[in-house]
Amino acid sequence: MSEESGKQPTQPTAKRKTADASAFEWYKQFTPFEWCKPFLSDLAERGVETAKEDDKALPPARLMTIEPDHWGTYAEVACRHQLRWVAAWGEDANERLLISTCFEKQGDYLVVRTSADAAHPHLPSQAPFYPAADRVERHIHDMLGVRFEGHPDNRRWTRHQAWPKERFPLRKDFLVEGSPAVVTPADKEYPFLTAKGTGVYEIPVGPVHAGIIEPGHFRFLAVGETVLNLEERLGYVHKGIEKIAEGRTPEALARLAGRVSGDTTVGHSWAACQAMEHAAGIEIPPRAAVIRAILAERERIANHMGDMGAICNDVGFTFAQIQFTRLRELWLRDNMALFGHRLLMDQIIPGGVKTDLPEASVEWIERSIHWLKKEMGELVTVIDVNSSLEDRLFTTGVLTPETAGALGVVGYLGRSSGQSFDLRRDAAYPPYDALDVKVPVEPQGDVASRFWVRYKEIRVACRLITALLDKLAPGDLTCEWTTPTAGAEGLGLIEGWRGEILCYVRFGDDNRISRYYPRDPSILNWPALEKIILENIVPDFPVCNKSLNGSYSGHDL
Amino acid sequence: MAWLIALLQTLLFIALAPLLAGWLKCCKCRLQNRRAPSLLQPYRDLRKLSHKQPVVARQASWIFTITPYIVFSATVLAASVVPLIAVDLPTAAIADVIVMVGFFALARFFQALAGMDIGTAFGGMGSSREMTIASLAEPAMLMAIFTLAMSASTTNLSVAIDHVLAGGFVLRPSYVFALLGLMLVAIAETGRIPVDNPATHLELTMIHEAMILEYSGRHLALIEWASQIKLMLYGVLIANIFFPWGIAETYSLEALGSGLLAITGKLALLAVLLALSETLLAKMRLFRVQEFLGFAYLLSLLGMLSHIILEVID
Predict the structure, then answer these.
(1) How far apart are CA A453 and CA A307, in angstroms?
(2) What is the number of other CB atoms lying within 10 angstroms of the CB of residue B208?
(3) A500: which of A214, A275, A410, B97 fits an S-S bond (Cβ 3.0–4.6 Å)?
């Protein structure tokens, strides 16, 4: 690898601090859940009684149950112990509502669960300690009717004003078809933050944008060109994914998961399949795991190329965008030829993968990796020496490592702000557990960091594909599906191209899904945009937004 | 006869402006490794737009509807002042270069008003940015023109061109500075990269386009056409003031023909230069524009100073 980087005319990121090479070893020095002991004793000191479930209850995470009154205290102690808040979801279990929160530390996942009375569900909020819990708790309230006490912001989030009051879509008594009114009134009564004073004005942007992008509303408060505050309003692509997943077969759920966010079809369907396989207690054949990883890395490369081009285009450097678009297009055509789908949809199925990689395909992929490295090397040199581009990208839209850590952002957004976390390395699942995954990290946190982290991740992904092809041993593509027992649950944890994807699945009777919750990385990353844009100027918003590139669909569900 | 040629020249100006825009687009596409649309595409777009019914916002006042006509006529009037293929035309005699700048200011004034008229956030934002840039671009442009006026002792474009022609090809530092200054101003005034991006769809980054976001149909056609004329006008100014050779000095068919050929070649070359710079540069941050135009002003001022110091003999 060092020989190949030596071929490049200039080292594109030579000016910037390089990745923390010792991070890999740093993570390995801990025994799993070692941190749990002081954490549990601290909890006991605060009077929080925890009942530990069987370790096999929800692999790879450890499951705990606590009393509802301790919900907030638990988060407070977790925050003090620097656990990262990962996800929260709720489900209707007849008289009780089960609420779960997932935390992570040093690559170990901990799910804590409580139950609330379905008639008057209320819980202390975790949002005062974890900003990431803010919107997720509002979502749980809108979908299940759980009231979170002490929540800093009690406005609705996913709920449309046309929904009937006291009707909650994720309750079992709510029909999948819903009961739509003939004409849904416009949703225009959302109380945005306002500001008074001379020279302060509001700029409403969206939800319909000029480009072909997803809908979302951004409300700016600006003085002159400087942004005072940005407020996001999402939810325009709410498709009821969580509800329509109920009653599906595993195959149908994998298809649905592939459509949670079109650009992350591999990531989400892998996460859903992994969760279902954990619930069913089956292990997929090694060949299938390797092909899944190749699919995931191909998706990562395609999306990163698209993003890098789009970042350049948003500062008016069209040349780079056209070139990245060309590379991405050729890459997608390879996908079409190799797997029969440009975006690799429906390739991952419960128990394995759909398409095999014959010898010819392996050679094809090797050739295309070689070609891509060469093309990227040339293109990146052009970009690196362009000072007008550098002027736009450097120091624009800074997300400091402190803010990134407090918000718990993941993926390239976290890694470009000093958050060295990658599931493929820190909580490795097959086939990554047998590979050495390098995780590029940049501490600056500006748009340029997010641009170059993507480039480095493409290089890592190329290397991984080559390593994965070496590991491709003959074998089955799928394994036999075992029907899980009713109530069996599973957790899927996948490093998608945007970052960590968490997926929770619970089976009901008869091999049917009773609860599906995919947590796209965008749910954690979107709030960071409101911080990134502060003290920047209004015309720099598009490039800041593009450098973050959250999924609207993945967030709204 | 002279009036007829003057009229024809203005018509030619209006008719050829979309072709220049098409050529520029063609050059840019080639430089970006893309297949270019036909050279005639801007004409087709204008035809399509003029056949469409304009949609006008409910709260728009008469300013909004009248602005496209004012912008278009002011730009055409400005174009009539500029010698395109021939000098010493009567239109050039009735108005000088300061009037031309005035026409632009009139068009911009109404454009900015119309941007604010419909009350959208983008319109107001665009107007505010446009006026910021204009307030910096106009002094730089006037300074460049005064440099020329001082050496030719006139503000009349036609006479100034005559003066340059009579002087023959001499490398004057003042002209070089003024030319560079004027080129920078032209980029800012016509909303090209790196100051503004005419091809963007991102409302928040727009300057000129933000003001005209609400326009449609023939209103939009007129405004688009006016911007194309303005782009060509700046090209002609640069080409004919600093490199006037080839322009017709008599009204013979031969001279006019070669004048047309000469200006076509010069404009085509300028468009290639513009396309090159637009491909190589990213758009600059909004608050860098003042440095950019400050630099343009400095160049023009240097032109003036070097004229006074080096070229005034007595």
Answers:
(1) 11
(2) 23
(3) A410
- The verdict on a CB contact (< 8 Å) between B282 and A317 is yes
The beta strands (E) that lie in A94-199 are given as: 96-105, 108-117, 122-124, 147-149
Kindly provide the ipTM of the predicted complex, given to two decimals.
0.88
CATH code, domain carrying A117 = 3.30.460.80
Domain boundary among A97, A128, A149: A149
A195 part of a folded domain = no
Query: Mean pLDDT in runs of 10 for chain A (557 residues)?
Result: 38 42 54 84 86 78 89 91 92 89 90 89 92 92 91 88 83 80 79 87 86 87 90 90 91 94 94 92 92 94 94 90 94 94 93 90 93 93 90 90 92 92 89 89 92 94 93 88 89 93 92 92 94 91 92 91
Q: Domain total for chain A?
A: 2
Distance from CA of B197 to the nearest CA of A (A): 6
Nearest Cα of chain B lies from the Cα of A527 at a distance, in angstroms, of: 20
Query: Which residue of A203, A316, A538 is in closest CB contact with B194?
Result: A316
Q: In A367-413, which ranges are E strands?
A: none
Reported pTM: 0.89
A128: which 2 tokens?
């005062």
Tokens 């029909």 sit at which residue? A175
Same-domain check for residues A12 and A82 = no
Domain extent at residue A308 = 2-29+237-556
Alpha carbon of A185: minimum distance to chain B alpha carbons (Å): 22
In a domain, A122, yes or no: yes
Q: Are residues A423 and A356 in the same domain?
A: yes
Residue of A88, A141, A145 whose CA lies nearest to A120: A145
Q: Does A60 touch chain B (CB under 8 A)?
A: no
CB-based contact, B279 to chain A, within 8 Å: yes
Q: Report yes or no: B281 at the A interface, CB cutoff 8 Å.
A: yes
Task: Residue A541: list chain B partners with CB under 8 A.
Answer: 204
Both structure tokens of A350: 């419960």
> Do A70 and A18 belong together in one domain?
no
Take residue B256 and report the two structure tokens written for it: 């006019």
Last residue of a domain, one of A131, A149, A167: A149
Judged by CB atoms closer than 8 Å, whether chains meet at A225 and B286 is answered as yes
Q: HEC states along B183-236?
A: HHHHHHHCCCCCCCCCCCCCHHHCCHHHHCCCCCHHHHHHHHHHHHHHHHHHHH
One domain for residues A266 and A380:
yes
Is B194's CB within 8 Å of A205's CB? Answer: no
Query: Do residue B121 and residue A203 have CB atoms under 8 angstroms apart?
Result: yes
Q: Which residues of B touch A317 (CB under 8 A)?
A: 281-283
Q: Does residue A310 sit in the same domain as residue A422?
A: yes
